[in-house]
């Protein structure tokens, strides 16, 4: 029996998530992974590296609970929000029996994580306005344990209507958990659903320090939920999920000075997003969709040709599954200016 034959059939047939780093590329401008352009400095301590970390570091949990305006018993930290997705699937879905629902176009890891654990996936596409199809979701709730909703949605950038999320929570009460992925909520904090946690025991929220806090390389995420949900997730999480340096840096980022710096950087990124949106919107044949995160979804007449020209010029963007669309992360002003200038030049040739 070969090594491949030893593997589970599901894994042999699985197509892995095509992250920005897996797709590669060579260039000077990287606007393909929704990363922050800012590089912040932190103090790293080494005296505790000979000891295992605490599963849920108290100082970190308290710091994020304060930031998110929730109670400490409603917070779990993990290796990025991606681990939070896997923990929820492992804790709540029976393999080869239960299902999740996700609503494309959206983040691809919901489906891949479910498939990895032999949990079925049901797709209920967003409407033409990229909002929830509540009737379609209701028709697919049999044997569904988790419904994933991304807001702001990746890659479209729009917010999901709050009333629809509340209607979905009512619809799934005592049937399924609604998992609202708020990876980009720090760019529009007024749109958070965290203030609904006490009203809806079936609400779960995913958060991360990867985007607004400029800590994508730290891999530090959070799950906000009813304490009963948190206790179940603690049964399946790894013994030491948060390395000591990760906790130390995250606590610094969540300090008053760290939060003030992040707020300033969010304002800077939002200004650059507005600059890109205005500049691209002036180009003939270009549609720029409203974005509430640190990226924009842009439709071109021939996205493939433009994407390849940008790629070959060292400007690395992200192709979208939406026809003729490219997702552009918002970088610093110099990166945005160079990207806009090159796109303007290329479109002017046609």
- Strand order, sheet with most strands: 2-8-7-6-5-3-4
Shape call: globular
Distance between the termini: 56 Å
Largest sheet: 7 strands, mixed
Question: Strand-and-helix sequence, N→C?
Answer: HHHEHEHEHEHEHEEEHHHEEHEEEH
Number of strands: 13
Helix vs. strand class? alpha/beta
Our estimate of the beta-strand percent is 15-25%
Explain what this protein looks like in three dimensions.
By secondary structure, this protein is α/β, with parallel strands linked by helices. The chain is 38% helix and 15% strand. The protein has 13 helices and 13 strands. The chain has helices at 3-6, 9-13, 20-23, 58-68, 80-92, 109-116, 134-138, 162-171, 227-236, 244-253, 256-281, 303-312, 333-349, and strands spanning 29-30, 75-78, 99-102, 120-123, 144-150, 177-181, 203-208, 221-225, 287-288, 295-299, 315-316, 318-319, 325-329. It has a 7-stranded mixed β-sheet, with helices on both faces. It has a 4-stranded antiparallel β-sheet with strand order 9-10-13-12. A two-stranded parallel ribbon has the order 1-11. Helix 5 (80-92) crosses helix 6. It is globular. The protein starts with a helix and ends with a helix.
């Amino acid at each position: 029996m070969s090594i491949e034959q030893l593997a589970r059939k599901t894994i042999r047939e699985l197509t892995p998530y095509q992250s920005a780093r897996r797709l590669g590329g060579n260039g000077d401008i990287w606007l393909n992974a929704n990363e922050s352009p800012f590089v912040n400095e932190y103090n790293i301590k080494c005296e505790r590296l000979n000891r295992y970390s605490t599963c849920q570091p108290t100082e970190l949990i308290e710091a994020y609970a304060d930031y998110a305006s929730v109670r400490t018993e409603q917070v779990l930290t993990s290796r990025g929000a991606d681990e939070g997705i896997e923990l929820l699937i492992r804790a709540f879905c029976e393999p080869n029996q239960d299902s999740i629902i996700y609503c494309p176009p959206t983040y691809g890891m919901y489906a891949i994580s479910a498939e990895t654990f032999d949990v079925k996936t049901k797709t209920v596409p967003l409407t033409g306005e990229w909002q929830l199809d509540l009737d379609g979701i209701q028709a697919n709730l049999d044997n569904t344990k988790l419904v994933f909703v991304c807001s702001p949605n990746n890659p479209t950038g729009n917010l999901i209507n709050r009333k629809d999320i509340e209607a979905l929570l009512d619809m799934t009460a005592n049937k399924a958990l609604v998992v609202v992925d708020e990876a980009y909520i720090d760019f529009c904090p007024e749109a958070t659903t965290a203030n609904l946690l006490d009203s809806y025991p079936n609400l779960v929220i995913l958060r991360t320090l990867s985007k607004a806090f400029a800590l994508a390389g730290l891999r530090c995420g959070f799950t906000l939920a009813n304490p009963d949900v948190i206790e179940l997730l603690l049964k399946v999480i790894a013994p030491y999920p948060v390395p000591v340096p990760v906790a130390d840096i995250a606590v610094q980022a969540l300090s008053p000075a760290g939060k003030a710096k992040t707020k300033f950087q969010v304002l800077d990124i939002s200004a650059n997003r507005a600059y890109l949106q205005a500049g691209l919107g002036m180009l003939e044949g270009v549609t720029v969709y409203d974005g509430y995160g640190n990226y924009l979804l842009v439709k071109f007449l021939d996205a493939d040709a433009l994407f390849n020209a940008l790629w070959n010029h060292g400007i690395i963007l992200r192709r979208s599954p939406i026809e003729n669309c490219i997702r552009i992360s918002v970088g610093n002003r110099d990166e945005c200016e160079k990207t806009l200038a090159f796109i303007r030049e290329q479109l002017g040739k046609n």
